[in-house]
Here is the input.
Amino acid sequence: MSEALLEVKQLKKYFPIRSQLLKREVGAVKAVDGVTFSLNTGETIGIVGESGCGKSTLGRVLMKVYEPTGGEIYFGGRDITRLRGAELKEHRKQIQMIFQDPYASLNPKMRVRDIVAEPLWVNRMMSKEEAYGQVDSLLTTVGLRPTDAPKFPHQFSGGQRQRVGIARAIAMSPRLIVADEAVSALDVSVQAQILNLMMELKAANHLSYLFISHNLAVVKHISDKVGVMYLGNMMEIAEKNLLYHDAKHPYTQALLSAAPVADRTHKSQRIVLKGDVPNPANPPEGCPFHTRCAQCKNICKVEKPAFVKVADMHYVACHLYGGEQVQGNAS
Here is the structure.
């Protein structure tokens, strides 16, 4: 069995709302509200959900860009929840990020060789000259040419710029990469190239990915297991084939019914959700999804469901199902 690289327990991130006059805290946006899961070494977990459900915030909390409001994060068995200073800087070498916009994430005034080499000399892993010596190898690894090193970002296509971003991410030899909508800004054909590159790098370097996306087809292609978020909560986690063929949570079922299918002979009934996603500053009591759920029961309105194991490698937070309550991680 693979070693658990990342363990997240009841993770929360609230952003305070302050009054304009006295700047007092009058509430909070509950962007991430008690998320639990684990990720094994060499594994990819896809995180899906509607816009505003907390996917990107979750990734940034795991990167320690945002400090968590509550909960625990274990990386390689070590509690990193409250790391500071030199310890945090050392830890960050092991987690890198691939951003959504391959142009905005690159400094337009820097040449590619400096963009890719910068993490190496900033972290004092090697001198500037030694770092430049690694650039050619990194560019070749991601499908670019060493002759591209002197160029600026505007001289590349969108897919090539994302390859530069990937080269920068792997320069530190990380153990985990957070990919936040890493292919959503690219053409479909280029998306496939970047996804295949990421999978090749994963196999070659035993990488783990947290792959954030709203595209269910892309997530199915690259992931080993999939987590579904709604209003800051993890509603369901399962091995990808289990989730796509036997989704348990009504929200997951609705998401899958909305995904386009290329097979014209395939017929499925579309589940249309009524109403809008509630305000994360004032989420409903009980199950966060009950205001839009066609299977809502009275208990759903007053009691938040526990995250339970309904089958091997399958966990769900829904009152429709019993099972073994998850105290630690959904792995």
